Amino acid sequence: MTSSDNSSTNYYEMAANMPTVDISEPIQCFKRHEKFSFRAAVDFVAMAIKAMFPVYLGIRIDYPFIPGYLKHHGIYYCTWVGTILAAEIIFNYMIDWKAVLGTGWLPGTMFLVASSLFYYVGLSLWMLVVKAPLRNRVGKANFIMISEILFSVMWFLLGCGFRAFCQSVGTIPFPEAIPDVASTLFGVILVLTGFFFKGWACTLTGYNSYFLRDMLLDTPNSHFVESSLYKYIHHPTYTAGYVQTLGVALFYRSVPGCIAYFGYQASILLFVHFVEGPFIERTYMAAKEPSADEESPVSTESPESTSAEEESPELTDVEV
Fold first, then answer.
1. Which structural domain range is residue 237 located in?
2. Which domain of life is it from (predicted)?
């Protein structure tokens, strides 16, 4: 939304009826600064911190700053955010999963498999089977809200299941030649690296893209954008961003967790190949057939794999 939006506007109704999905909001900070400065650095850091909330917790911290959002959706938003934060604190910081599940293979593995199937298979079915009929039944605005909550729950359970698996399944000893401090330090570095790339991608492409808005509505992103990040890493959220999973396994010195990481990586790439890839072909590639000197107005990649640098003179010299 822009500053001209009326505070009385129902955000989801407006978003549901827009001809394209807005992806420009998170990089507005770059448009205020033609050259690097302390103020520009502060703006970028603030934007990166805001991006970490959807990346880590699956919630949107930008919504309260949208004029009129809390007026119309305050109860919904507070319930959504409060529930996820409470679950994060309880299940990931207050529960000893080794004490709850034991150290055998079966309980922790069952939790891991169930949470993984719920995310990877569930998300695929949501996009391929459930999306169209449910969207027609409840309307686009309500469908966006339902999907936001569902994605948050999916992301939370996926992370919770993996951490529980790493903590509880300990039948394969970690190599003693690698000291605790080394595995812990390297694990933390990988976690921060994964969050960095996910946060960078989210900052560039926008929260709507991160929450798969164009796929949910079958509505293309607003314009073609490009940045240095996507020139070198085609799917930064799905590839470089996923090293945080390996980092968690190393932090807990979990050999089974290191093995499970490769299953996670393969699963998300299968989702890209069978679900997101065909959507990209239908929505973007077919529209990019014009003559060589004609530039397409839409993005050629989907939410988490969208290149991102505004087609604006103020952004042409910005290297991010």
1. 11-95+175-315
2. Eukaryota
